[in-house]
Design a protein that fits this description.
By secondary structure, the protein is of the alpha/beta class. The protein contains ten helices and six strands; from the N terminus they run H-H-H-H-H-E-H-E-H-H-E-E-E-H-H-E. The strands form two sheets. The chain has a four-stranded mixed β-sheet with strand order 3-4-5-6, with helices on both faces. It is globular, with a radius of gyration of 19 Å. It starts with a helix and ends in a 5-residue tail after the last strand.
């Protein structure tokens, strides 16, 4: 299931549910008026795709050529690129090179290979017992280590220090995310999982 298919599937996601903490009215407004993803969110989603599903990266993303669009030849080349990339998310060459460097550094870590040795970008759908609300999640990776089910979630950040990540977790509801993901996986599989964050900085040495 692609990310687009997942987003179109019935059910409330963690991102949507987190927004209701501000007010039900704002939650409803945001559902009816989807926000345009910020450059940071686009970057994070693209790195996720390149790391976890490299074989289908080109189906969703296109890297723009570095051409001088002030010239007739440059404009023509760029317009041809846009036609070929119709419907895909466009990335700059600079961002793609940065993403590639991050992924190359990431996969060199032995423990990372162990943690990511499972089902990647796996969706789960269930119905909340209390409210009857359909819910959905899409875990970065679900793996089994020593007969223990482990949910892996990959985050990119400017500062991966413990103190900085704790602040990010509070601001963005990562504790809420881990709770919802564990509940969903247990509801579907019948097994109680544990949740692990892997955090990587977006600047060298990554």
């Amino acid at each position: 299931m692609t990310e687009r298919e997942y987003r179109q599937h019935d059910g409330i996601s963690r991102t949507e549910l987190w927004r209701i903490r501000e007010s039900p009215e704002k939650f409803k407004w945001l559902q009816e008026h989807p926000e345009v993803p910020t450059p940071s969110l686009v970057f994070g989603a693209a790195v996720h795709k390149l790391l976890l599903e490299p074989e289908t990266f080109a189906d969703e993303y296109a890297v723009a050529p570095e051409v001088d669009r002030r010239t007739a030849g440059g404009r023509e080349e760029y317009n041809e690129f846009l036609k070929a990339a119709d419907g895909k998310c466009i990335l700059t060459m600079k961002d793609f090179d940065q993403m590639s460097a991050m992924v190359q550094k990431f996969v060199l870590q032995p423990f990372v290979k162990k943690l990511l040795d499972g089902e990647r970008e796996k969706p789960f759908f269930w119905t909340d017992d209390l409210t009857g609300e359909p819910c959905k999640i899409r875990v970065d990776c679900l793996t089994d280590i020593n007969d223990k089910l482990v949910i892996i979630d990959y985050k990119t950040t400017a500062d991966a220090s413990t103190e900085a990540f704790i602040r990010s977790a509070i601001n963005h509801g990562y504790d809420f995310q881990s709770g919802m993901y564990c509940e969903g996986v247990e509801k579907v599989t019948g097994k109680k999982p544990i949740f692990v964050f892997i955090v990587q900085e977006k600047t060298a040495p990554y």
